[in-house]
Amino acid sequence: MIKLDDIRRHAAHRPDRTAIVDGEVRLSWARFADVVDQFTAGLAECLPAGRPARAVFLSATRWELAVAMSACATLGVSCTGLDPAADPAALTHTLDQLDPVVVFVERRHAHLLGPCVWPAGADILRVLLDGRAEDEPHEHTFGELMETEPLRTLPAPLHQESFTVVPNGPTPRVASRHTASEGRQLIDLVDEFGFDSSDTHLVSAPLWQPLAQGLTRTLLAVGATVVLDASGHAPALAALMADEHVTTAVLTPAALTRLIAHPASAALAGSDSLRCVVTPGRHLGRWAVNTAWERLGPVLHLAYTTAETGFSAIITPEESHVVRMRSGRAILGSSVAVLDDAGHPVPAGTPGRVAFAGHQLMDGYLDGDKPFVVVDAGEGEQRYFVTGDRGILDERGRLSLTGRTSGITTLARDSAEDTALFRLESDLLNLPCLRDTAVMRVSLPTLGDALVVPFIAVAVGREATGYRALTSACARRVPSIPAHVIAVDSIPYSPTGRIKAAELLEAVVPIIALNLQLEQSMQEEISA
Question: What backbone torsions phi and psi does residue 262 show, to the nearest 5 degrees?
Fold first, then answer.
């Protein structure tokens, strides 16, 4: 988030202009500066000495969190967001790696810290962003820290580092950035999207998501108004967009699909203000792109982002109508290359491993691993991070993803079957008769080695059309694996755009198994 001196600069220029909106709370730039000043002073008094100054947060998007993150930026304290949905083992592993001195937490998430045990955990400072403290040692409330006298002089920043959690099952990794890349990112995002102080930016994504945090920081840095929404409910989003005259927004894929499917979004297409909506786009399909254009106008930008590479590629609204899904170009400040198994660039049109370079690239993992290759892809030698994706670059530099790989440092070719599964999923995402779908390969006692393909029909009563289209595509692309196609009401996503496969399988596999049993019983009755 932005520092206190930047907030004061905006407050001096436009003190009464709204900086942050969160429900009934509206902070002017002048009030925002006062609140951050007081909270920073209180936090500085409580920080323990002798350890690296690092903070983490477990919280939904709220104005108190924005204040806490600005205070951390002012003091030079890294502030890393944690996913409240992570299991205790993963949360403990992350806390052990980061070894934070302070955690900002909402009351409803405070219990998540109970099972987490790491060496320095007993001495951590806990700051409750809402509610009252319960006389626990090292525990303070947001209000208590606000009671401190404002700072007379700004302290010298302690460190220049930032961290991003990389999901990896029970042992997540932490991407580390020790250089001050935020300034370069701000310049590139302003050049890419044309952000300025007249914008009103809607945030309906958790601030632990790097894409949401980076865009929010950029909009505040240029003096725009930021509107926070933690609900993701379609009627509330539509009302906020209309009432606050929102010009730009960052939404989770789930919030976006709920919004454009709701009748309340129909009136937004006539808005003269909305011009840019950004969301992670790996799993969004043709229906979402077409419906977003119809309901919101030509505003939807699909982002490719990872913890290691940052916001690195994009599909603009116009491009999304002429290219296949899972395509895009490198964003300003990033470079993309496709490499062969030996780590050398391949000619245009040749599939290989997707790699990114640029100032948003991490410096390495916190454990010391630096899995980079130095490559000259036509712009001089640069340090590239090789992702887990395979793709093709065309003559214009547009990237199309064609498959996935496992691991980071090992350049291993995908099997033909895995590539066929990825292409199947890409084919399905380009079908306009589906609202959403997922392709999951399973090996279960009830189903054997099979594909589970849940889908959401484009409209009520169109399930049969979707079923026929998916069944035909599965038989064409992957004839060797039986496919179980099933209509569902929703497909769960994480805020970063990843499908929650375990949750989805838990819901659909029992239904598929029951249907198979019924079919078998009917066959037996017919045979008898």
Answer: -90, 140
